[in-house]
Amino acid sequence: MKILLTGANGYIGQRLLPELLAQGHDVVCAVRDRNRLGLNPETLKKISIWEVDFLKNPTFENIPDNLDIAYYLIHSMSSSTHFFDRMEAEAAQNFNSYMRAIGTTQVIYLSGISNSKTLSKHLQSRHNVEKILSSEPYKITVLKAGIVVGSGSSSFEIIRDLCEKLPVMITPKWVLTKTQPIAVRNVIEYLIGVQLREDCYNQSFDIGGPEVLTYKDMIQQYAKNRGLKNWIFTVPVMTPKLSSYWLYFVTSTSYKLACNLVDSMKVEVVSEDNRLENILNIKPISYNDAISLAFHKIEQNLVLSSWKDSLASSRFKKNLTEFIQVPTYGCLKDHQSIKVQDLESTLQNIWSIGGEKGWYYGNWMWELRGILDKIFGGVGLRRGRTHPHHLDNGDALDFWRVLLADKENKRLLLFAEMRLPGEAWLEFRIDKNNILHQTATFRPKGLKGRLYWYTMLPFHFFIFEGMIRNIATRKDK
Fold it and tell me: I need a labelling partner for 378 at 20 to 30 A (CA). Which of 207, 251, 276, 407 fits?
């Protein structure tokens, strides 16, 4: 079958793609920026890429044709606290325009459970998107999920942050809201199982795990699974704004996403039927087993996707290609170079930078910069990295974004997503003479930007010199 996969570089899209390829389908990946797809060369040979922005008016240039199935995995919840519902409606309408031009038999839409009488703005938006998609003549299948649990999922990582960092929690009352978590493996099973099934055409199904739990239950079960002690005290006085700030500072989520999550967490998300579970004969995975499966992947460094690598965790919504050409004029630079004695070890050090490994020199200063970044509304250091030794274009790396990870040509280029009065790049490159070049480039924005750079010069002197020296000489066993 020929299948269109929108949101191909999102959390679910990256999990679904290898399953579709394993089934032998002809997959077209729809992405805004092909440089962010981050797939290995073998996978890239098996797919087609369609660069398209569904938030822009359709152009109908280079569109695919004769689709059997289109997966609609687009959402904009992390893009805005006020207008994401308009953005989601606009994206759905533009998607429909493309589908009318292309032609497809079935559209499969992953939405959220919306059975409560009062819906959050997020869930109401998902419901509105369902109406827009259902207005077209193609056959639509809607799968409505609650909290998705799996290695790298936003819900899993937020609960992980809370439990690992806070043995004692004073929590808002929304932790007592009921929800029905579902393992990401089950979500993928459902997405694949409904393909071209006539008994699933023009149908909407709730999908959930076997248990109805409160968020407090989920936190406590996670702690028990990991052998952690925690104490939770619920107070009624935390406003939505305070709750959002609490989530933002304690976890790796962005403030915009925290606001929208808090708004949704006040609404019960519980399925009302399990028809599809019986139709497809799917065995739901328990919440505790979903946690164990997630850590099995984490411990083997087999996490296929993480929400932190999506632009949902970024301050920037532009295409990475806009930043991949490092500017020359009007910039301030720090350039260091050193002779490399062990090329393999040095490359491994470069590709392992950040996350738990740290930045090879003055880690306490990097951590302080991350705290300050969080205070001023940035992403901070809590995103870490998805894999300890592997990087792809588009990956999040603490408060940086990977623009180019070209190990064959010995070049790594990072773009800063921290709060700055300007734009910053950090590049590592080893030339043909085995000289490691480390270049920090800053394009200041006005006088404030220049003052920032010169204020940081004393710290740069120690950090950058120590960092390149340790990258070139450190050998980990």
Answer: 407
